[in-house]
Amino acid sequence: MPEISPDLLRRWYRSFEEDTADQAVYRPADFPFPPSRAPRPSFELRPGGGYVEYAAGAADRATASRGSWERGEGDAVRVRAGAGTRVLHIVAHDEQVLKIRK
Amino acid sequence: MDTADIVETPARRRCGSEDVHRRLLNESLNYRLNRAAIENLAFAYATGQDQPSRTEVVIVPVVVHVVHSTDEQNVSAEQIDSQIAVLNEDFRAINADVKNVPKVWQGLVADARLEFRRASVDPQGNPTDGVTRRRTGERSFSDDEAVKFTARGGADAWPADRYLNVWVCQLGGGLLGYAQFPGGPPATDGVVITHTGFGTTGTAAAPFNLGRTTTHEIGHWLNLFHIGGDDGTGCSGTDFVSDTPNQAGQNFGTPAFPSITCNNGPDGDMFVNYMDYTDDAAMVMFTHGQILRVEACLAGPRQGLIPTGTDPAETPPAETQPTETQPAETQPAGGR
């Protein structure tokens, strides 16, 4: 069973407005985002290794690509869904914010 | 098309999963078949091979499911009625701000001839005010359809062949609303609107406090696509409507005329269309081509809304089987 901080096991929504030059910022669903007709890009890390990546869909609802995650070296989490694999380098996180190296 | 979550192949076969897998596959196959039939009918209307025959305004019975975790989210009857009033202007092209349509497109403004009323008869044949209210423990809902099921903290749909289901709740992730195209499962058919984007009073908040999120989502429910073509910012996507100009992505805020993309000058993007992504104040019209798709939708998958001599909202139902027990196979396939 892969190990990961329980804080990370949720759906995270991109908070573009808070991005910095080298960090992409994500927030949980309850964060007071400015309202938008377009769904924000988001992803979900599930207990047991499930991963879901969400992108904008045609009826304003996200379409889901399902895959898996596994813990990598150091701050890395390797995720696989849809087109391929990528590595998330997690700079900081708690229950309210997730920062990933760009 | 949003089929990604209709089919999910189990990672491995387990006891009980085979039935679920077969059901999902069947629903997906039905959805694909339904969608093909719906688009074939829309194409027949768009090419003039077939033509709308209805002469009367169609009255759409609406049930509003208010699913709230705070008193604030429990929107008032006034807020609900303010939304219905907006729909009854926008779908008749009698909204005051239709005058803001640039002159070049004024001849394209179309009347959908739809009137929305809170349902007066519930699925069991009893009188109703067309509103259900439910306190929930969910602080917010995502677009995972949970709000559409009592067992998941939401409220079950009323039969989708006879009612427009509108769920009003707190949506998470900043999402204003989402919809389901015709041809999908009846138990999830309808539109979901976050309460701060619903109606024109109460908790509705600028710049989404003119009720246009619901107009936009009902556009999807009537088989309209985004005018940007749903291919990101590309120029090859289409909404299958000939009188909406080709444009790149969706527009935001309140654009100034003209907004040129994809060599569509001199008039540019039709950002005043309800099926763009602009602020409520900027979207003010449907086109004739879009309403032809709506006509095809009403002749096909939503033909249950067409009265058979009397107002369906006033007519007790022929049967009262709960929606969620209806197999997907009974969904009208859009054919004639």
Brief sketch in words of this structure:
The complex is a heterodimer of chains A (about 100) and B (about 325). With about 100 residues, chain A is mainly beta.
Task: Quickly count the helices of chain A.
Answer: 0
End-to-end separation of chain B: 23 Å
CATH class of chain B: Alpha Beta
Q: What is the H/E order of chain B? A: HEHEEEEEHH
Question: Distance N terminus to C terminus of chain A?
Answer: 27 Å
Shape label of chain B: globular
Main sheet of chain A? 8 strands, antiparallel, barrel
Supply the CATH class of chain A.
Mainly Beta
Number of domains of chain B: 1
Q: Give the second-level CATH assignment, the architecture of chain B.
A: 3-Layer(aba) Sandwich
Q: Low-confidence segments of chain B, ≥5 residues, pLDDT <50?
A: 1-15, 310-336
The overall pLDDT of chain A, averaged over residues, is 93
| Helix-residue proportion of chain B | 10-25%
Biggest sheet overview of chain B: 6 strands, mixed
What does this structure look like?
The complex is a heterodimer of chains A (102) and B (336). Chain A has strands spanning 11-14, 23-27, 42-45, 50-55, 63-71, 76-81, 84-93, 98-101. Chain A has 102 residues and is mostly beta strands. Chain A has one domain (6-101): Beta Barrel (Lipocalin). In chain A, strands 1-2-8-7-6-5-4-3 form an 8-stranded antiparallel barrel. Chain A is globular, with a radius of gyration of 13 Å. In chain B, 20% of the residues lie in helices and 10% in strands. Chain B contains 4 helices and 6 strands; from the N terminus they run H-E-H-E-E-E-E-E-H-H. In chain B, strands 1, 2, 3, 4, 5 and 6 form a 6-stranded mixed β-sheet that branches. The radius of gyration of chain B is 20 Å and the shape is globular. Residues 1-15 and 310-336 of chain B have low confidence and may be disordered. Classes of the chains: A mainly beta (102), B alpha/beta (336). The interface between A and B is medium-sized, with 25 and 33 residues.
